[in-house]
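Why does residue order matter? Because the sequence determines the fold. Keep that principle in mind as you read this record.
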Amino acid sequence: MSLSRAPRRRRSTSGRATLLTAVTLASALTLSACSDTGSGSKSAGSAGGNYVTGPSGISTVSKADRVDAPKLDGETVDSKTLDTTTLKGKVVVLNVWGSWCPPCRAEAPYFAKVSKDLADAGKDVAFVGINTRDNSKQNAASFEENFGITYPSLYDPDGKLMLRFPKGTLNAQSIPSTIVLDKEGKIAARTLVAVNEEQLRSMIDPLLAEQ
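Structure:
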C-alpha cells in the first residue's frame, strides 16, 4: 500500500507547483496592467541611464542626453487620424490610459484642467492620449466625456503603440504612464504612476522654458 501511495503524492506536489506558478504569473500581469504605486521610483534604463528620478516618481533627462520619441500614429477614439511627428515645435504630453483603470480615473480631472489652462493661455503644448486595453471605442469615448477630456487619444486596444518605444528609453511600462516630449520631439520626462496637477505641471513647465 505504501508503495502505491508515493507516486500519487509526487503527482499532487507537482500539480500544486504548477498551479502556484500560474497564479503567480497571473498576479504579476494584473499588477502591471493598472497600478498607482511604486514603479515610478525605480528607474529602468534610458539613454545610457542618464536620467534622474525624483521622490515623486518622475524621471527627467537632461537636454543633451535625450533620444527621439517614436512615431505614434493611427486612428483616434473619435475615429479621426493623428500622427505625433506633426507636433514637433510643441511640448507633447503623452498619457497612456484605460477607462477600466482606477488610477487613470483619478488623474483624468488634472489632465482635463491643465490641458485647458495651457490652451487658453496660448502655450505651445499638445496633449495626446493613448487609450489601451479598452475593447470598444464607446467605453473610451464615455470616459473622455465624463472627465471633460477634449484633446485626442489614439485608440490602441492591443498596446502596440507602446511597443514602438526603443528599448533603453523612458518608455511606457504601466497604465497609467505619462511621457513628455520636448519641442524637438525627444523624450524628456516620464512617470509610471498617476499624477496630480502639480506633478503634471512640473513635467511641462521646464520644457516650455527651454530655449
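Confidence is low (pLDDT under 50) at residues 1-33, 35-48.
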